[in-house]
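Same chain as my last thread, 389 residues:
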Amino acid sequence: MTYQIIKGSLMNILEIKDLEKLAQKKVPKMFFDYVNSGSWTETTYNENVSDFQKIKLRQRVAIDMSNRTLETKMIGQKVAMPMAIAPTGLTGMQRADGEILAAQAAEEFGIPYTLSTMSVCSIEAVAEKTKKPFWFQLYVMKDKKFMERLIDRAKAAKCSALVLTLDLQLLGQRHKDIRNGLSTPPKLVPKHIYQVLTRPAWCMRMLTTKNHFFGNIVGHVDGIKDVRSLGSWIGAQFDQQLDWKEVDWIKKRWGGKLIIKGILDAEDALLAAKTGADAIIVSNHGGRQLDGASSTINILPEIVDKVGKLIEVHIDGGIRSGQDVVKAMCLGAKGTYIGRAFLYGLGALGKEGVTKALEIIKTEADMTMALCGRRDVHDLNHDNIYTQK
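reply #2:
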């Protein structure tokens, strides 16, 4: 019966927006708003999406479109299309065991999954339920012993890449979260209880799992034995004195593939390349940090020009379709990431929803590439878009 309901729902889903609408109906408001919002006026958050739409594609005709492929490599790893799932906090609040479900969907689809430090399911919980290595995202924190243990746990789980996030030295002001009273970890005050009770299916699933809090932190921090003391610890942990020397220390401690996330300036991109990292992610934290900063797709060409020959350049932020993926590749990106797009799928239909989101994006990217006269994703370049003058 459940399978038939999911199958029927999937038939009516044609674009990521359909998954977003369905997720809004199924996920408690405070958690849906956590995903569906940016900082301050949300200008950068919105421009991440709208600036993609300003890029116009060149349609070509009478060109062989057969035998197309989106397969490529990201940091040497084969991927079914130039995409990975981005690290997102509180993923397990969109759906019970959300990180596990998303990791399984990505694994089966053939793209990397990146687990966040601030995930609900722990590194070990995700590793236990998956067959292939996933990537792990690390925040730079003041508690260096905790960071060392976290890196060692990622090694033990055989994570194949470390994604180091640099753009969260302090938390951006997110008005929706403040108005909703969303805290870290979330507190169930009366209005939250009401929101949760209006989503009975979500509640029932949450009752079936033991994963309810930050699995990478609870039980792994000295002096933190319960959830009540966790919030103050997290709030004080982001390192405002972070510098490139600390990046070098993390790189040596990790010893494997390293991706630096949160680059939004060409000079910072050059500094990141000098660390010897394997890739950078052009990112503004999904428009959740510095409002008024550039959209990622707008700054991408400048960063590619600066360091594209020195380091692999990836991009996240605003990707809601396969056309967005094609446009990013045309502008020099070697890989893309989705956050909200997969979270909508997860909140809407669980693992099947994540798979559906990936299928939508892959189909759109394949068709767009064909209509632009390309058969191989590696052949996409500036010639496939109209350059604004």
